[in-house]
Amino acid sequence: MRIIKSVAEMRKVTNSLTWKSKVGFVPTMGALHKGHISLAEAARKECKIVVMSIYVNPSQFAPNEDLDSYPRTLRSDLELAENAGVDYIFLPTDAEMYPEGYKTWVNVEEITDILCGATRSGHFRGVTTIVTKLMNLIKPDFMYMGEKDFQQVAVLKKMIEDLNISTVIKACPTVRESDGLAMSSRNTYLSPEERKQALCLNLSMKQAAALYQRGETSLTVIRNSMTEIILANQGRIDYIEFVDRDTLAVKESADDKTRIVLAVFIGKTRLIDNGDLV
Ligand code: AMP
User: How far apart are CA 242 and CA 222, in angstroms?
Assistant: First the structure.
């Protein structure tokens, strides 16, 4: 695995590769876990060259968020990435990605104002900008992303369509701990007590699916039942929403295409999850 730290070197590698190889790209912020590794493994199966980036992108963190405390575990990340078969790992610095005088931003409208975008001001503008920059540098045929960040995938698919970018997004299923908690770099913030409480996201989605299986289609009834489970576990709800799996349009009543999306604070840690009703 070759480590690349500068934009110039990344560009050189890309120029030597893309004309002859299928390139798969896995963008991450590091603190790698099995969720990230599943993306690298999917890329390894389908592509000739696998590039991963590790970059904690400051522009996708609001001023009150956890940029400084975000877990950084580079040594073990490199080992995990190499074992997963990553060929090139791109580790740019802030000065490389946002040099002095940086002025350009990519913004997808409307679908970035709802759900996580309503709470995390400027978050998606940071995501769409950095991903555009990384795609321009790496020119991947496929970009592997987790369904764990359901809105992120929808936003980036829209951006790719609107800007006529030729990279195709491959959305991969959420990898979970054995008890059902979605893996996340932020799970390391949880105390042992909070770790137990954090199960309420998955439990509440299971309850929603069970209600729907029994014929319940009222989203008010389903939301109330989810709310009860979360509050009983000391969770503070940021949002529980029901959207169309493909368009992210908010649903009026439950059907087979309904995706539950939710964000819940457990202590100070904001966790997200999503899942189908069927
Ligand atoms: P992050 O490092 O959190 O920015 O995530 C980098 C990529 O890994 C994103 O495409 C995430 O959706 C994906 N990812 C994070 N957690 C998981 C998970 N539990 N299962 C699958 N993919 C994940």
Answer: 10
Task: Read off φ and ψ for residue 140, nearest 5 degrees.
Answer: -75, 150
Nearest CA, atom 17, ligand 1? 35
pLDDT at 19: 66
Probe target for ligand 1 pocket from 90, 135, 148, 272, with the most ligand atoms within 8 Å of CB: 148
Percent of the chain clearing pLDDT 70 (strictly above) = 99
Domains recognised in the chain with CATH numbers: 2-172 (3.40.50.620), 185-273 (3.30.1300.10)
The torsion of the CA quartet 25, 148, 162, 50, rounded to 10 degrees, works out to: 10
Instruction: Choose the residue to mutate in 28, 36, 134, 188 for probing ligand 1, maximizing ligand atoms within 8 Å of C-beta.
Output: 36
Distance CA 154, CA 164 (A): 15
Tokens of 88: 């090139």
* pTM for this predicted structure: 0.97
| Residue found by looking up tokens 């790992």 in the block | 89
